Structures are given as C-alpha cells and as structure tokens.
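Q: Structure tokens for this one, please.
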Amino acid sequence: MAGIGVDFSVPASDLRQWLVNPDTPYPAIAEAVLGMQHRLKAPVYLDVVVWNYEHTPGVASPRQVADVRSDVLQAAIVSGSNTRYGTNVTTFDQLLSA
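A: Here is the predicted structure, written as tokens:
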C-alpha cells in the first residue's frame, strides 16, 4: 500500500489483525483503495480513511469490496489528507500524483 501512498497510524500488528478480519471494513476498504490504481502525492493513513468512511452519515459499513462506494471512499481520503496535513483540498483529483 505504501507504493500508492497509503500508510497507517496504528501499530502494525493491530492493522494486520483488522485486515484479515472479515467482520471489519478493513479488508474491503483496503482492497478498494488498491483497486483505484491511483498514486497519492502524500500518504494518507488507512485507519483514518476507514474511520472517516465508517462515520459518513447514512453509509453502511462495507464487508465486501463491491459494497465500497467510491464517492465515499474518495471523500474519506480527502478528509484524511486534510486532517493529516492541515490543508483544505476539496477534490480527490487534487491529491493524485501526475
């Protein structure tokens, strides 16, 4: 995931446990992030992206990659980036490497 600009802010052992647990949204969201095939200019924390996704009003927590809404995922990434870097980016495309 580091190759596309995604890292994490929690202990690696915790993240590994979440990524293999199908009862969490982590496997589905991680797979969806990888499937986007975009490289971010600056890393975002996967755990923050998942938290942002999960706390989007009216959006169900995904357990399958097909259930991940790309619009919500992109908004969660933008929010995570803005929080991490103190920026005010408004669109996902602004975060992408050329």
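A few notes: Residues 61 and 68 are 8 Å apart (CA to CA). The first strand starts at residue 6 and ends at 7.
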